[in-house]
Write a structure and sequence with these properties.
The complex is a heterodimer of chains A (about 280) and B (about 140). Chain A is an alpha/beta fold. Chain A contains eleven helices and nine strands. In chain A, strands 1-5-4-2-3 form a five-stranded parallel beta sheet. A four-stranded parallel beta sheet of chain A has the order 7-6-8-9, sandwiched between helices. The longest helix of chain A has 12 residues. Chain B has six helices and three strands, in the order αααβββααα. In chain B, helix 2 packs across helix 4. Chain B is globular, with a radius of gyration of 14 Å. The mean pLDDT of chain B is about 90. Classes of the chains: A alpha/beta (about 280), B mainly alpha (about 140).
Chain lengths: ~280, ~140
């Protein structure tokens, strides 16, 4: 068995061969944004979750106009193949890909293994920041079918459709109200959305080289918890970045047709007045 | 109470920097970050852990003959932001007496305007590193 949509994944070899390809833009998206300055794949640009991709004021990602501006500055056209990679098993690379998909940029890929694999293979990292001729970029209509808002999540829970909680087991159980090590990104209440199953995001990747697990392993992981291709699925975490990796796996590696990322996630749900919560401690 | 002079100097420097200069300084700090000395590697797991950081961060203070504390850190190169921020504290507080370290207010960094360069979760980690340096200062006070 192979991945359902293998065209959304490229290997490090492919990236090395295409680093000078004008039709391809390689973009680093990290949890630690200074990593890019320390050294990145030759020819790669950077987007930063915090300063590039988030709305400066509201809790939301950047507007469509701002998204167009970011692409224009990175020399990306509507036809450019955009390949994302990053640290921490491609967490934030998957978030960036989800966002590009949301604004209708369809030709996107993840570099399997991210920074970790590239480094382990002793491939070159450079400090030179490339510059690009500005392009005219026109974002398409937002693809709302990949983003879930709270009302929809409540309906999903009430109708007992699959919700995947990708946080750590202790966050799921309610023992912790924030991710270990992120004390300020917590919520006033702990637990999970009623009916959600716990499948921590990291179970989808191989720890040694940050590559995705095999199609068979992935299918066993999600189907084993009752999350199947024939149902609508919503994934969530704490702020919507870890769950975008799970979203990527379900949608492109396993080919589930209806998967949404709930980017409000626990920092919204656990603070939401009247929202139902389940605990397992 | 005034801040230790070297820390005050760092705060003033950052306060006058643009966002880009702040980032460049943190990168330079991260790149010059010293590895944990060989002799401390054996006790790495007994060092003070900083769970506020996403990255595994360990630190230890050692008292010098003049009573000042020198801090040593173990922070992976994959976390340059954490290395850069820890350097701010190490540069500003190395050589200070435990009592001086304990008087540093938890919000001393506000004039540095770090939030224009790094996200809130990084600043939390930074505050965590200071808190754990203070734990070490208390430990060294008690073992006098």
């Amino acid at each position: 068995m192979s991945y359902a949509h293998p065209e959304y994944l490229v290997e490090t070899d492919w990236v090395a061969e295409h680093s000078n390809d004008a039709s391809v833009r390689i973009i680093e998206s990290d949890e630690d944004p200074l990593l890019y300055a320390i050294g990145h794949i030759p020819g790669a640009a950077q987007v930063d979750w915090f300063s590039t991709l988030q709305h400066p004021l509201r809790r939301d990602f950047l507007t469509k106009e701002k998204f167009e501006e970011v692409n224009s500055n990175l020399g990306i056209t509507n036809d450019t193949t955009v390949v994302f990679y990053g640290d921490k098993s491609n967490w934030f690379a998957c978030y960036a890909l989800w966002l590009f998909q949301y604004y209708g940029h369809e030709n996107v890929k993840i570099m399997n293994g991210g920074r970790l694999k590239w480094e382990k293979e002793n491939r070159p990292l450079v400090k030179e920041v490339p510059s690009y001729a500005k392009t005219t970029y026109k974002a398409k209509e937002a693809v709302k079918s990949i983003r879930a808002f709270r009302d929809e999540v409540l309906k999903q829970s009430n109708t007992k459709k699959p919700l995947v909680d990708v946080r750590s087991p202790k966050e799921y159980s309610g023992e912790l109200i924030s991710m270990p090590n992120y004390p300020q990104e917590g919520a006033t209440r702990g637990g999970h959305i009623p009916g959600a199953v716990s499948i921590p995001w990291a179970q989808a990747v191989n720890e040694a080289d940050a590559t995705f697990k095999t199609p068979d392993e992935l299918r066993a992981l999600y189907e084993g918890k009752g999350v199947k291709a024939d149902s609508e699925v919503i994934a969530y975490c704490r702020i919507g970045e870890r769950s975008s990796l799970t979203w990527f796996v379900l949608k492109y590696l396993l080919g589930y047709p209806n998967v949404k990322n709930y980017d409000g996630s626990w920092t919204e749900w656990g603070n939401l007045v009247d929202a139902p919560i389940e605990k397992s401690i | 109470m005034p801040l230790p002079p070297k820390l005050q100097e760092t705060v003033d420097d950052f306060a006058s920097m643009t966002r880009e200069e702040k980032l460049e300084t943190l990168i330079a700090y991260a790149e010059a970050f010293p590895p944990l000395p060989e002799r401390l590697k054996a006790i790495r797991d007994k060092m003070e852990a900083v769970p506020e950081c996403m990255t595994p961060v360990f630190l230890i203070g050692e008292k010098q003959t003049d009573g000042g504390i020198i801090f040593y850190f173990d922070i992976p190169p994959q976390s340059p932001t954490v290395r850069g921020l820890a350097s701010v504290l190490a540069n500003g507080l190395n050589g200070c007496a435990p009592e001086e370290i304990l008087t540093v207010p938890a919000d001393f960094f506000l004039p540095m305007n770090l939030q224009e360069a790094v996200s809130q979760q990084r600043i939390n980690g930074f505050m965590g590193v200071l808190a754990h340096m203070k734990h070490e200062a208390v430990r060294l006070l008690e073992t006098q």
